Amino acid sequence: MIGRLTGRLDYRASDHVLISVGGVGYVVYVSERVMASLPGSGEAVSLYTDLLVREDLLQLFGFTTLVEKEWHRLLMSVQGIGAKASLAILGAIGAEGVSRAIALGDARAIAVAKGVGPKTAQRVVHELKDKAPGVMALAGTMAAAMGTPPAEVDTDAVIDPVAAPAPNPVVHDGAAQSDALSALVNLGYAPAEASRAVAEAADGGAGDTAALIRAALKALAPKG
């Protein structure tokens, strides 16, 4: 299994690139989002890869993060979603967008991808919804392992005493809470609102990272 390639970007095509590694050129298919993030021809490049093996076909697909790669693998497990559709979804809304859309059951966000209809998008959400917190937890754990600075709440910010919850919104204890907070911040939520949601989830009895993320997302979801 080829899990990662690091080499020189030789050229780009419309949907794939050629990466030269040790004198061997690897054709790697990527999403539009990944393509836009790559350096120029002749420069160093590194991508996580997933190898699709069929009787008459071997294809490599490239991703900038392990979370994106994991979503690709999960998306392809859904009936009606092949490699092309998976890359279209990831290219349209990114790995963070996929995490948010599936966790919140937002099939419309999935359906914005080219070639993905409403019924297929609904199937994606239905089949993968329970797996979203786990992938998001992976993102939080990876961020911590790579030394990403923990999110901090601005203590000088003015908080409405009526709207603010009684407990201190900053999460102080537990690796699970820390990972959940990191995952939510990586999704684009403000540190203050993310920490309040995680604290609320913990007070409600949620224990592990996946449960904390699921409960926090429900708290953060638009009301009405």
From TrEMBL:
Chain spans, region Domain II: 65-142
Principal location class: cytoplasm
Stretches assigned to the Holliday junction DNA helicase RuvA C-terminal domain: 176-221
UniProt keyword list: Cytoplasm, DNA damage, DNA recombination, DNA repair, DNA-binding
Location of region: Domain I: 1-64
Domain of life: Bacteria
HAMAP family in UniProt: DNA_HJ_migration_RuvA
Subunit architecture: Homotetramer. Forms an RuvA(8)-RuvB(12)-Holliday junction (HJ) complex. HJ DNA is sandwiched between 2 RuvA tetramers; dsDNA enters through RuvA and exits via RuvB. An RuvB hexamer assembles on each DNA strand where it exits the tetramer. Each RuvB hexamer is contacted by two RuvA subunits (via domain III) on 2 adjacent RuvB subunits; this complex drives branch migration. In the full resolvosome a probable DNA-RuvA(4)-RuvB(12)-RuvC(2) complex forms which resolves the HJ.
Known function: The RuvA-RuvB-RuvC complex processes Holliday junction (HJ) DNA during genetic recombination and DNA repair, while the RuvA-RuvB complex plays an important role in the rescue of blocked DNA replication forks via replication fork reversal (RFR). RuvA specifically binds to HJ cruciform DNA, conferring on it an open structure. The RuvB hexamer acts as an ATP-dependent pump, pulling dsDNA into and through the RuvAB complex. HJ branch migration allows RuvC to scan DNA until it finds its consensus sequence, where it cleaves and resolves the cruciform DNA.
UniProt similarity note: Belongs to the RuvA family.
Protein name: Holliday junction branch migration complex subunit RuvA
Organism whose genome encodes this protein: Pelagovum pacificum
Gene of this entry: ruvA
